Amino acid sequence: MQTTVNANGSLFRRGLKLAHLRLMAALGETCAIGVAAARVGITQPAASRLLGEIEEIIGRPAHTRAGRGIVLTPEGDILARRAVRALAELGAAEREMSEMGRGLSGHVRLGAVTGPALDRVLPALRAARVALPNVTADVVVAPSDPLGDLLLAGRLDFALARLPEGREPTLFDLTAMGEEPVSLVVRPGHALARRAVITPEDLLAYDWVLPEPGTLLRRTVLERLAALGLPPPPGRLSTSSFLLTLAMLRESNAIAPLADAVSRRFASGPEGGLVVLPIDLGFVVPAYGLMTLRGARLTPAAERLRDLVQAQTG
């Protein structure tokens, strides 16, 4: 059954204001008009006028006199309790907006190629758990070209990548951050893992797992081998999937070129299971950088997380 309060429309359409809510919340706590008036910063006559307006708006008494104080009616008590909750929500909204403006809350979308994802993004996210506990993030790990497309589509705030091929460089701002050295890795127990000295010819006696044709890492490896006067390595599998590469390494005698950051992580610690071969053929993928759309302005939260990423030593 509808009450009188609901019959004539919403309280706000009938004139209920924030000042009314503040007074009712104070009355619910003090049960004294004078004390409630002082709490909200108005005079007692002004509080009495506001209380009269409230009762006119709800169409029922909100209080009764009781000695030197007042007692809220059931309707007044309902409004006072709800007023406390409404004011608490408004206060929370103010704090949340303030934090968002200072970059202390919000959602960030970033991307990274594999090495920087481990060397910079991962430690930055660990630091953000303490420094920015109310900032959440989506992270896309992919080659530079797809990351550039995601930036152009507005689906990333920034990326640790290289300028995408086939795209106009002036579409992006790029701040150089560092090169990405590459190691050769095998499974534990591999024959080459037991050797102190390895020659390039030794490497070419085994299958290699290379990234897909057209990828930067594959091109870097093949161009460097050619510069050393070596033929392309034998290989039955080409893939850009790290999980498939890892499985192939662990279940065969294959060799794979991986970014140093990946090699170090999977050659030590609880994830151990790869061995870095003691040979340096000079594989270095060209420098990557922090990439954004040209002229784009990051949100405060994205700026904060970007600063944490840049603060990592790599």
From TrEMBL:
InterPro entries: HTH-type_LysR_regulators, LysR_HTH_N, LysR_subst-bd, WH-like_DNA-bd_sf, WH_DNA-bd_sf. Belongs to the LysR transcriptional regulatory family. One of its GO terms (molecular function) is DNA-binding transcription factor activity. It holds the Pfam family HTH_1. Residues 16-73 form the HTH lysR-type domain. Keywords: DNA-binding, Transcription, Transcription regulation. It comes from Rubellimicrobium rubrum. This is LysR family transcriptional regulator. GO terms for cellular component: cytosol.
